[in-house]
Amino acid sequence: MTSVNTHNIDDRADRSSIAIAAPARDVARRDKASLLHRFLHTIFGLLSLRYANHLFLCAVGYWFTGELGLLVGSGYASISPLWPAAGLALFAFLVAGTRVWPGVVLGSLFLAYTESIAWPIMLVTAGSNVVEGMLGAYLLRLPHVDFKGGMNRIKDVLMLTGYVVIGAALIGSMLGSLALALMGLVPWSHVETVWFTWWLGDAVGIIVVTPLLLVWRRWRRWRQLRLDFKQAAELIALLGMLGVTAWINFFVVVEYGV
């Protein structure tokens, strides 16, 4: 009698273990199917026409703004004190997402080809802009930051300046300068100068280009633009100061060595 009871208990235990294992297997299958679905969705998303369009626009925009930056001049390792491409990269990451980073790399490679710049230098530059752009976009998307792309609040300007210009750009330029020094492309005695020039170029590019593109994207119709007297005066004063600063930095300093 005892052996029969023991046998029945063992049968019930086996059935219980099977009943418990079955849902676990189902969950594992669903997890694998979900993982495969996400993987295929990512692959097909990368191959989509819209993504290709974003990639192309990012590459062309980075190349064009890089050409503008090199017109200003460059020092060690083609580092320019004005680099609008950094602002373009941040704008692309904010609007299209960080997945368009290959466009930055493609644009930098094309820039290296057209300007006969060493490939490693432009790859390091592109990598720096990718890092600071991704980091800047991540910081601006934090819930407590509450960054608005319209740039019509003082808070938006302060967030862009604090989190991206002082934060992300400083880190990106530091990593890029150290990478160039480790690769032997920049003397270690000039790393600080390269770092400052790199950060200054990225900072100016982000402050000028990113807000301009964000505001341009927000204004669907230019006819909607209405400026009162105070706003028009502020705009004229801002453009005037920008012109004077550019003239002093890129004409007086270069021509007279002040």
Largest sheet descriptor = none
On the 0 to 100 scale, the average pLDDT is: 76
Low-pLDDT runs: 17-21
Class based on secondary structure composition and strand pairing: mainly alpha
Alpha carbon gyration radius: 27 Å
Walk me through this protein's architecture.
There is one protein chain. With 258 residues, the protein is mostly helical. The chain has three domains: 1-47; 51-225, Arp2/3 complex 21 kDa subunit ARPC3, CATH 1.10.1760; 230-258. Helix content is 79%, strand content 0%. The protein is built from eight helices and no strands. Helix 2 (49-72) runs antiparallel to helix 3 (84-96), helix 3 (84-96) crosses helix 5 and helix 4 packs antiparallel against helix 5 (119-140).
In a nutshell, what does this entry contain?
The protein is mainly alpha-helical and 258 residues long. The protein is built from eight helices and no strands. Mean pLDDT is 76; it is low at 17-21.
